[in-house]
TrEMBL record:
The lineage of its organism: Bacteria, Pseudomonadati, Pseudomonadota, Gammaproteobacteria, Lysobacterales. Keywords: ATP-binding, Kinase, Nucleotide-binding, Phosphoprotein, Transferase, Two-component regulatory system. The keyword Transcription regulation does not apply. Residues 139-348 form the Histidine kinase domain. It is an enzyme of class 2 (transferase). This is histidine kinase. Pfam families: HATPase_c, HisKA. One of its GO terms (molecular function) is ATP binding.
Length: 348
């Protein structure tokens, strides 16, 4: 079905030219622009796909209320965002689509007094994915134990023969091999729980920075943007380090030449089915080629990769580790700017 101006009159407002709208055609996040009066201006391909693949649907001129399966929640949230000129979250919304009502969190962000950006955060993947991932990881862990032992022996031999500066790098290799050996040992036991202890997140992120710089094949510009107010968090430091390294490795393999490691304290944020009063957010921001739109719905599933030589385990493992800690992993992406955000609840 195609909607046009005859059925839905153009909104009687002045809006920016399309080129000025931050609505990426390549973003994996479903997004739309909403005009004052709650009229849709445009939608990106990810949103059209999420609503049932209605490619021919023009969207411009449709009333926002038509998408709400629980009216008037969506219209009320949009009006609040316009009036208060701040981002408004609509948690656990129900949205009408061509394939039935679907659940999602919605974010409505004012771009100016006349236009809102609507972002749709769909429900997480099915629990069966975690089971498949665990089975894949246990097989992987079994296979790498032998090569890890050989790497450790070689690194120790080098450590004795190198000068002081190079010994530091050899010691880093030994420490990482030991950490991976311990990690693979835990993965071999089904149902293994993370070993939680209070930790300074920035110390873990700094170790990620050191490993990212040492492991990059090409010169890497690395920037840090830390929130000093972030409190200690109960985490399994080795597991969290592994998750963040996977995100960094994913960025480097996507052609990133600049990397930003950022931390923030988030208040009253929804993680899964509950709201955390306080959470630590760790962002890995890169300037690589972005996430392919075709992988938007399966990106975190095991054995799914956008590269022919990719294992498809890195992001799946990173999300599993986040969820082991009661947190979650999400992303927003367009060519030249991709952000993976890992959320961890902070204990009271």
């Amino acid at each position: 079905m195609h909607y046009n101006g005859a059925m839905f009159p153009e909104p009687a407002i002045t809006v920016p030219a399309p080129a000025a709208w931050p609505l990426s055609e390549h973003s994996a996040t479903p997004m739309a622009l909403i005009a004052r009066g709650h009229v849709l201006l445009a939608a990106n391909p990810a949103l059209r796909d999420w609503f049932g693949g209605a490619v021919a649907r023009a969207w411009r001129g449709e009333q926002l209320a038509l998408l709400d399966a629980r009216p008037p929640r969506l219209s009320d949230a949009a009006e609040r965002a316009f009036v208060e000129q701040r981002r408004v979250w609509l948690r656990e919304a129900r949205v009408r689509t061509a394939i039935g009502d679907r659940g999602a969190d919605l974010a409505l962000t004012p771009l100016d007094a006349q236009v809102l950006l609507l972002e749709v955060l769909p429900v997480a993947a099915e629990p069966a994915t975690a089971t498949r991932l665990s089975e894949s990881l246990r097989g992987f862990a079994h296979e790498v134990r032998g090569p890890l032992a050989g790497m450790r022996g070689a690194a120790q031999l080098l450590h004795r023969r190198l000068d002081a500066d190079e010994r530091e790098l050899a010691g880093l290799i030994v420490a990482e091999v030991d950490r991976l050996a311990a990690l693979s040992g835990r993965l071999l036991h089904a149902g293994a729980k993370p070993r939680l202890a209070l930790a300074n997140v920035h110390e873990i992120v700094e170790r990620v920075a050191a490993l990212a710089t040492a492991g990059a094949d090409a010169p890497l510009r690395l920037r840090r943007d830390y929130d000093p107010s972030l409190p200690a968090v109960r985490v399994d430091a080795d597991r969290l380090l592994q998750a963040l390294l996977n995100l960094v490795r994913n960025a480097l393999e996507a052609g990133a030449r600049e990397l930003v490691l950022r931390t923030r304290a988030e208040h009253a944020v929804r993680i899964g089915e509950r709201v955390a009063r306080l959470a630590a957010r760790i962002d890995v921001v890169d300037d690589g080629c972005g996430v392919p739109a075709a992988l938007a719905d399966t990106l975190y599933e095991p054995l799914v990769s956008g590269r022919p030589d990719g294992s498809g385990l890195g992001l799946a493992l990173a999300r599993e580790i986040a969820r082991e800690h009661g947190g979650d992993l999400g992303h927003a992406s367009r060519p030249g700017s991709t952000v993976f955000s890992l959320l961890l609840p902070v204990s009271e």
